[in-house]
């Protein structure tokens, strides 16, 4: 039986990460450091001998570029890839494009903290993590998970919050604990699943 392999990678640093801006569905490019992180993600996977049968990513260029740079390191630039809005980052609504310090000055430290770190309170015009999970999880269940269970080695390059939606199920987090689950940019997290779709093992490929 083929291994049931699922690898998650958060995109490399973006220009707006660097500028401390709320990004969400806005589409800034990777920084030079982000490009380096994407290459390093592919190098880490290559060092461990990984190859893939299918990849998934969002409709945002920072995730797509991270995926392509990583696949380039693996010699798999022509890999079948599915791009879907379901894997987009959480939509920060009216906060998008704002400096986080400016947002705190406008709405207050406590309110901005609630929007960023509560499970189910959305920012104005945007999504909570709960909303993001409601968008992302059905796509995982119907599109990604079946490929993994069929034995297709699957790579997903996406965003901190859309990946948290998958990790919440994989690692059985509660609404409280998932908010504390940090994901470094450009660091692959390797899951091997059992036939019942639960996790057999997980490895973080951080240096």
From TrEMBL:
List of residues binding substrate: 10-17, 23-24, 62, 89-92, 100, 116-117, 160-161
Keyword GTP-binding belongs to the record: no
Family: Belongs to the phosphoglycerate mutase family. BPG-dependent PGAM subfamily.
GO MF entries: phosphoglycerate mutase activity
Record's keyword annotation contains Isomerase: yes
InterPro entries: His_Pase_superF_clade-1, His_PPase_superfam, PG/BPGM_mutase_AS, Phosphogly_mut1
Domain of life: Bacteria
Pathway(s) this gene product operates in, as recorded in its UniProt entry: Carbohydrate degradation; glycolysis; pyruvate from D-glyceraldehyde 3-phosphate: step 3/5
EC number: 5.4.2.11
The name this protein goes by in its record: 2,3-bisphosphoglycerate-dependent phosphoglycerate mutase
Chemical reaction(s) catalysed: (2R)-2-phosphoglycerate = (2R)-3-phosphoglycerate
SUPFAM superfamilies: Phosphoglycerate mutase-like
Function: Catalyzes the interconversion of 2-phosphoglycerate and 3-phosphoglycerate.
GO annotation terms (biological process): gluconeogenesis; glycolytic process
Site keyed Transition state stabilizer: positions: 159
Keywords for the protein's UniProt record, in alphabetical order: Gluconeogenesis, Glycolysis, Isomerase
Active-site residues, Swiss-Prot/TrEMBL: 11 (tele-phosphohistidine intermediate), 89 (proton donor/acceptor)
Self-association state and partner proteins as the record states: Homodimer.
